[in-house]
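$ fold --in a.seq
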Amino acid sequence: MVRRERKRKSFLVVVVFLLVIGFTGVFFGMQYLKKTGLFKQVGTITYDDSLTESEKDFLKKYFTEDFEVSNNLTISAFETTDISSLESNELVYEVNVPIADFYDIRSDISDLSEEEYKFVPLDQLNHSMKLLSINGDYYLKDFTKGARFRVMKFDSDGFDSEIKPIIYKEFADLSPSKDTVLTFAQTGVTAFSREMNNKLAQVGGDATFFVENIREYLSSFDLTHTSNESSFSDSANNNNICSDKRFVDALLAIGLDIVELTGNHNLDCGADDAIDTIDVYNSNNIKIVGGGKNATEANKPLNLNEKGNNITMLAYNQSTGGATYDDTPGANQYYEDDAATNIAAAKERGDLVIVDIQYYECSAYASASEDDTCDYANSSAGDQVSFFRHLIDLGADVVVGTSAHQPQTFETYGNGVIYYGLGNLFFDQVWWPGTTRSLVLEHYIYKNRILQTRITPTVYDNNMQTRLMDEEDAASFLNRLTRVHP
């Protein structure tokens, strides 16, 4: 019995020993295969000569002397004008964009000599510069072309597991993208009224007839704005500035997001129709600024929070009538203290501030031929230049005149930019060339500041159908406006 017990114990000892040896072998075998533990291999990090010293310093903040990689890593850099097909281990480090003078009407570097444009880092781009395209590619359209891109390449078998988790976010945060840049189209006067009511009947009641040549363009923006000074009414005819109720389809077709009600004709159809029109906007999720059912409502700033951008829009009727002073509907009357307070509060929050003004109109409608009277910033009654500049002095980033029925010039001033008048986007006056035109402001907004505003002229024909102006005509017209800036 004793001998048998000893044999059993000896057998168990052998089994335990073999198990320990087996587990130990498996344990160290796995370390060997995975190159961990005792068998861990440390890779090398090589900085290619294509990297600048500043780029190496940037990388060494993350790949410190204590940082170890198990796979060899080689980092290099190259430049390209197209990043649409980068590999996963190729990351954009820097973007340099081509710019010219703000007042230069040319749009592509191919139109300028090398002395007339330069490349600047993207973070230096601002509203006072003119962003150019490269061979027709405009950087802010899709962010993969239209610039010189500095790209770093990380060659390592362990890129996804070792390198990407450490470095990727830093590179992803370097540049704006479609997810973080807000596109915002500001347009001029809209009034589907008078002869447009007649034309609507002639085309079978389809209000999208008037926008069919521009709907795709306007609806492509994240936000689209217009200053509509005509209320919807059953009494709309060819003699009044009232809109057939079917014209709401035209506004929806262009993707309207924001309607400005600073116009002096919104009460032409009566208070009840003005109130009902506001209800139509609300029911279609169209935001309202510069007007309302009463003075308190009309005075509310419009706060926009889109794609990480915070924008305050203020809109005032400075002089043309139609304002509300109490519990009646109408436009938001301009008061100096109110504007100063609202602008200061918005700037304190760090918002981008856009102020729209329904100002005095330029009266140069008597000629069926070209008349450049209204091109000038001082062509309106009153001192428009000083008034608009004063709003920039108060802290506004952008000031826009939305009452002008003919486009006016524009300028950079102080820390902002002024567009004195945008003209008519949708209107019925086809007999005066000046009233058939408008300017669309294409704002590109990133981190609460305007990277760029591109100006696109429009024109409508004898059918009152609005379209983008032909390229040659647009260049000629913009040149006409820039020549007379203050």
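$ fold --in b.seq
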Amino acid sequence: MTEYLATIGLETHIQLNTKTKAFCSCRADSWNDTPNSNICPICTGQPGALPSPNAEMVRKAVRLCLSVNANVNKVSYFDRKNYLYADMPNGYQVTQNDQPIGTGGFLDVEMEDGNRIRVHIDNLHMEEDAGKTRNEGGVRLIDLNRSGVPLVEMVTKPDLHSADEAAAYLMQLRQLIRWIDVSEGNMEKAQLRCDANVSVAPKGADHPGRKCEIKNINSIEAVRKAISFEIERQIRELEAGHSVEQWTIEWDNDAKELRKMRSKEDNVDYRFFREPNLMPVVISDARIEAIRKDMPELPWERRKRFMSEYDLPSYDAKLLTADRETSEYFEDTLKAGSADPKKVSNWMMNEILRIIHGSGCSAGKLKIQPKDLADIISLVENKTVSPAVGKQLADMVQDSGKRPAEIVQEQNLAMVNDSEAIRSICRNIIDGHPKEVNSYLAGKETLLAWFTGQVMRESKGKADAKLTGQILKEMLSICPVNSEGE
């Protein structure tokens, strides 16, 4: 059979998290608003209404350009892209065409197998979003709340060759835009949307094949499925001896199928020309440098530093830099205490990430602060509380907002390391479980851990686990075989 190579380029629409829309003062975040309640003459295309560019949109666009190593164009222009959609009130979209805010650049994407692929960026351009259309009861309804929301469209070179590579690129891009605080990147709220250009040709061919564009992909898993389906469809066409027609295709996420929408437009169809109501965007070297200095350490840079500076394993460093707030929480905990970085990492991965996932809060919004975690680790290290109680303390602080030492004192959680007190509990457990004692004496030494667990449960986690194990081993070694346990 002929081997085929897929060639994929992605166009991602990133909704910038500005307070206002791209060219008017209407609020940009209107996802939950009543339809058509957050609009004005500018974003609804009323005659005579004059747009004015949002300075924060430009700043965030430059920030994104710098994060992907793109060239920031000191002079860029807005253009009109002409096409008539029902949810585009002007009859055209204000975008950037031949002189966008950014050109070039790349994003290095790490795959699950550890390999890296470099995805080159063709351009990044600012534009306004369209409104939202939905069909309900045979009637087409239009909501213009989203009309005019600021976007950056980031267009890649055709450097991707599989659905998995495309999904990995999107996951890393989503991490990046959240990290540098230019977008919330929530695909369910259309804050990150993706169009995929897919072509297939026999391996070794001189050209990549005729491309089709997949629209309306609203999740990373949908991107993976839609691209996989389109690659399979094009291979079937080629195997049947047909040529692939250049179509724009819609992904139906409910039906999990592709549907042809229309023949693919080319740039000539949009009749681009300069937007006469907007001046050029001019950015000075000083302004670019000020934005550069305000940039945070990027996630892959921080991951590398965590491994070199703190000697963390790659797995730990990757988890701790999954988002910016978690990575800052880790370093703030280190600064607040004296614990070994690996020990703090273990507490972060086992307890703090568990609390984050359970509560739905980000690390920066937790009641348990980095100082609290540092104090809990110290209490455990100093044997003021047992490790089991330390884990309980993390939840207690998160639930109550009280400090760890205060909770220990109020609830009498200090570790029991009095040998006689522990011995008394051990005696009760041994006397109450003759069958397990006999099994232990018969050679099933793993039951020692079970006996230790029973003592810990009886003491509500306060017994010194190491001392408990020693006492149990001593007491069990001199126990006679009990006929009642047979």
